[in-house]
Write a structure and sequence with these properties.
Structural class: alpha/beta
Mean pLDDT: 93
Order of helices and strands: EHEHHEHEHEHEEHH
Shape: globular
Number of helices: 8
Strand order of the largest sheet: 4-3-2-5-1-6-7
Radius of gyration: 17 Å
Largest sheet: 7 strands, mixed
Low-confidence stretches: none
Length: 263
Amino acid sequence: MAKVTIHCVRHAQGFHNLSLANHTIPDPLLTPHGKSQCQTLSSTFPSPSKITHLVSSPLRRTLYTTLLSFPTAITRGIRITALSELQETSNLPCDTGSSVSSLEAEFSQGEFAGTVDLSHVSEDWNSKTGRWSPAAHHIERRARQARLFLRALADQSLALNPDQDVEIVVVTHGGYLHYFTDDWDGAGKFVGTGWANTEVRSYEFVEGDEAGAGLRETRESRVGRMGCEIQLGREEQRTLRDAMEKEWCESGYQGPREESAKM
């Protein structure tokens, strides 16, 4: 039976990663070092020929990370699906995306013309209000919606070709990835995240959990980066999550969780 694998990637180094002062840069681009990280990822990513889908946050650093890191998939005609729900958690200028019209203009010309599908990006996605706000419970809901989107994408592929493995690359952000994977182990390793720039971890869907859209890191991925396959329990994860949310709220990276929304 065909397998479904979700390869999660944190974007390459952006100019906002160089200093806290650079957090005031709106929707920053990749640094020269960040572009070099993409070249390295392009040469080290296992079996790029097996990639079936590319999905990205609509922020420019994630879109360019996807474009520069997976050129062979782009050459094969795989377009990047930009998804509003994958945006970073805070409302800082560096984590606030550009308007849809600006993105359309930027990715409709030059060498990357026609490579990005913006049809799943809401016009108000960069408002950072309502469902797009940095409040923890809204981030959690967006992460669930993104997983359900990927589950539906995988199901569509399997319906068309039941014998072909589905390998989806998701390029997003360090803070958001903890909500997306529900894995908080090592969350304080770097500024605001436990993920290094262009780090890749692979996941599989957990059947029977939230419409089959829960994620669990594959044994190969976890053993490869941790040396063991043992994962933290649910209560341990919640304790780490609560601690990180408190720290991020105090640092101004995100808003508080509504008491009624606590798990």
